[in-house]
Amino acid sequence: MNWLLVVTGAMVGAPLRYLTDRAVQSRHDSVFPWGTFAVNVTGCLILGLLTGAVAARAAGSHLQLLLGTGLCGALTTYSTFSYETLRLTETGARFYAAANAVASVVAGLGAAFAGVALAQAVWA
User: Fold this and answer.
1) Angle 99-102-106 from CA coordinates, rounded to 5°
2) Cα distance between residue 37 and residue 20, in whole Å
3) Collapsing DSSP states into helix, strand and coil, what is residue 2?
4) What was the pLDDT predicted at 124?
5) What's the pTM?
């Protein structure tokens, strides 16, 4: 049963990542990878909310598998973040590469902490 929850979440997360990435990136005329940035920060927020909900006993392990492991696992992408940062460096866009690395870590952690705080405010 657990693997089915993970697979189901991933079946939603993977196409959602692709579609969101394309939609966001098409609206920006920049080499900065806004699409990947958006899906990664969104995934961090979702995972923070879920973590806070589980800690408050408002969500259980099945939802954690479905949304945390499945959806967020397929929605977020460290490999694409790394590849895009490397490509920015290789093409001479070092400022964008550094901005992507710093902003992704700061915004991702900020979104995760905000998600936990929001969950605590709602369920604690």
Assistant:
1) 130
2) 10
3) helix
4) 83
5) 0.95
